[in-house]
Structures are given as structure tokens and as C-alpha cells.
Write a structure and sequence with these properties.
187 residues; alpha/beta; Nucleotidyltransferase, domain 5; five-stranded mixed sheet; 5 helices; 5 strands; 42% helix; disordered C terminus
């Protein structure tokens, strides 16, 4: 008897979050969600995240939960203390909800590793991409791979899910270029 495919849930955690779930090597389902009404304070956002993750995990029951690692606060010069605390604290809220639903394989992925996996290398001398440009480049690349994402939150989540799947099964990694995007679908 063969083992069923591992299922992965990836989340780009923020007040307006992107998520993507599906079996490794399969077709994902994805979306984006506002965790609390505009202007809500941190506890409301944390509660919204906890409820969202718990509801999804009770329905989907992933084997692996991966989230984008929060940025180092030293790199958030224009962000206020309460906003930094929220961004740093939200992953722990999501981890607690996952743990409560029995999802024990919890991992984080660096945004730079995800983008390196998804985006083609830049030509020598092309310089660095700005953060806003990176989001748009990821959005275009995910669209080119055939995913009908509606915003950059969704494209970041699909990119993270593809990266996570490639870590779990290295044969999946070649699917991040349009040439190989359907490689192995009939297996």
C-alpha cells in the first residue's frame, strides 16, 4: 500500500494574509483573508488569525504547516513598535492554532529563499530589485505558471507553497519554470 501524498499549508502571515494548501505535487487551493477589520488592534488580528488557522486545519488537516518567517525588526525602520510586535507575534499565534489542531510539523521559510526559488536569476550587473518590484515579479511568475492569483498576497502564498513542496520532495522544484510546470502531473 502506498502512502498518501503529504499535504502542505503555507501562509504569508500579516493583517491581510495569503494562504495556499494542497498535496505535494498536486494542484493547490489558495486565497487571501483580512484577519480583522481595518483599524483593529493587535489582539483582534491575533484572534482572527487563530480562528482562521483553526477553521482551515479542522477542514483541510495538512501534514505540514509552513509560514513565511517574520522579518528582523532591525530592518523595519519605518514601522512602529506595536506593528513590529504584531508581525513578530502572529506566527506564534498561528503555530498555537496548528498545534491545537494536531499539526505538529511546523516550519518557517525565509522570503529570500522563496523568491530565489521562484524567480529566475538576474543578469549580472542588473542591480537589486526593490521590495515592491519583488512582489510584482513574484506575482507575474506565479501567473506565468498558470495560477489565477488575484493579488500579491495570494502570489506570495503560492510561491511559498511551491517552495515548501520542493523542500519536501525535490522533484517538485522543476515546476517553478513554465517549461516544466506540468512535469510529472500524470504520476
Amino acid at each position: 500500500m502506498s502512502n498518501p501524498a503529504k499535504t502542505v499549508f503555507f501562509m504569508d502571515i500579516a493583517r491581510f494574509a495569503g494562504w495556499c494548501e494542497g498535496p505535494v505535487g498536486g494542484k493547490p487551493v489558495f486565497g487571501s483573508v483580512r484577519l480583522a477589520p481595518e483599524g483593529s488592534d493587535s489582539p483582534a488580528v491575533a484572534w482572527g488569525l487563530f480562528k482562521f488557522v483553526a477553521t482551515r486545519f479542522q477542514a483541510f488537516k495538512p501534514n505540514v504547516f509552513v509560514f513565511e518567517a517574520p522579518r528582523d525588526p532591525r530592518h523595519m525602520k519605518k514601522t512602529s513598535g506595536p506593528a513590529i510586535r504584531t508581525l513578530i507575534g502572529l506566527p506564534m499565534v498561528a503555530e498555537a492554532a496548528a498545534y491545537g489542531c494536531g499539526v505538529l510539523d511546523i516550519r518557517e521559510a525565509e522570503a529570500s529563499s522563496i523568491r530565489s526559488h521562484i524567480l529566475p536569476p538576474r543578469p549580472k550587473g542588473a542591480g537589486r530589485r526593490e521590495n515592491g518590484q519583488l512582489k510584482q515579479d513574484v506575482f507575474r511568475q506565479i501567473k506565468a505558471l498558470g495560477h489565477d492569483v488575484k493579488n500579491t498576497d495570494e502570489s506570495d502564498a503560492v510561491a511559498g507553497w511551491l517552495y515548501a513542496c520542493s523542500i519536501i520532495d525535490q522533484r517538485i522544484g522543476v515546476r517553478t519554470t513554465p517549461l516544466f510546470s506540468d512535469f510529472g502531473d500524470d504520476q
